[in-house]
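hey can u check if this looks right to u? its 66 residues, i copy pasted from the old doc so theres a chance i mangled smth
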Amino acid sequence: MTSIREDIVFAAINRAYALTDYNIQDTIDKRFEFRQQTILADKSLTKDEKSYAEQKEFVKIVMMNV
């Protein structure tokens, strides 16, 4: 397993949040899907880092809805 470059992962997550248009992605499901697709399309991340970013994003969504 490769090492996770957390600073780059969190930069990708922040970029996905910054690109979110709340007028278009008007439900939490649409926002989650958009952010997930944005992270998966990021060419600066390895497969392990994309998986790590998805996990962090999912945990954040779950915690917000508790």
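Residues 6-64 form one domain.
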